Amino acid sequence: MHAAEASVLEAPAATAVTVIPLGAALGAEVKGVDVADGIGEAQFQAVRDALHRHAVIVLRNQHLSPADQIAFSKRLGPMRISFYNRYAVPDHPELTVVSNIVEDGRAIGIADAGMLWHTDASYLRQPDMYTLLYSLEIPHEGGKAIGDTMFVNAAAAYEALPDADKRALEGVRAVHSFTHHLEKKRLLGNLKRAPLTEAQKKETPDVDHPVVRTHPVTGRKCLFVTEGHTASIVGLPEDESAALLERLWAHLKNPAFIYRHNWRVGDLVVWDNCTAHHLAVFDYGDRRRRLYRAGIAGEVPV
Ligand SMILES: [Fe+2]
């Protein structure tokens, strides 16, 4: 590890981080980084800058133990331990298993995560700032990987709004609700997880956040309402609230703002939950899919 760090300092050209945009809207592949081998400070800053510039970064061909993933995650900030500890990676409560695999009659992970557009843990007072998802098993069909993840650039979506909308949304807040999210999922027939315990319900009371939040690092304004977790606009009658949310959600689905990630085993995908919202594509039935997720705690959105 010390040798690798020294080589970054002494021979930057040999260990340069290369950033290749993956889509017009957001997303970039970051090359030249082997996370398990240890990353020097200069390399890490290049990765972090790429994350803020592109909102979603993809590091291919990684070979990560849970400890490697945790060590890298902690460099981005304090990890938030999920209250779904029943789906934690064994002996690593910092990581959550995202999977449809059932072993010995027991689901090894969350099987229904991300079916609606959302941004991670927006139903908490302090939503996750970043998410790191590492793929271990990816389903295929006809030689092509399936089970993609879609990302939308919520800063670009905000910037594309008419000025009148931007003015109208100033100071407006919306309610984000985990209970509402699970009920919406149940009504769609997609709920596949155990119901919340009373203790878990207490940990996730409804919260309100600004409809337009400002990124703490880039300063960009980002639309912050999601189909998955935003229940209502504060202070509006129910019909007006629903109509405004439907309009903003439709705006956030414009293909011009979207990057669709086609997974490979060994991908470490890191995203910024302020600039990017995301959606999991459930097109793989019961073909095995397994990823490990880490969440980095964020500040209260402003
Ligand atoms: Fe998510």
- The tally of domains stands at 1
Strand content: 25-35%
Shape: globular
Low-confidence stretches: 1-14
* CATH C-level class: Alpha Beta
- Architecture per CATH nomenclature, i.e. the level-2 architecture: 4-Layer Sandwich
Output the structural class: alpha+beta
CATH superfamily: Clavaminate synthase-like
Number of helices: 8
Small-molecule binders here are: fe (ii) ion
- The radius of gyration over CA amounts to 19 Å
Biggest sheet overview? 8 strands, mixed
Q: Into which percent range does the helicity of residues fall?
A: 25-40%
Question: Secondary-structure blueprint of this entry?
Answer:
Layout: H1 2-10, E1 18-21, E2 28-31, H2 41-54, E3 56-59, H3 66-74, E4 88-89, E5 92-99, E6 102-103, E7 106-107, E8 128-137, E9 140-141, E10 144-145, E11 149-153, H4 154-159, H5 163-169, E12 173-176, H6 178-187, H7 198-203, E13 207-210, E14 212-214, E15 221-223, E16 230-233, H8 238-252, E17 258-261, E18 268-272, E19 276-280, E20 290-297
Parallel strand pairs: 2-3
Antiparallel strand pairs: 1-2, 3-18, 4-5, 5-20, 6-7, 8-18, 8-20, 9-10, 11-17, 11-19, 12-13, 12-16, 14-15
The site of fe (ii) ion has 5 residues, from loops.
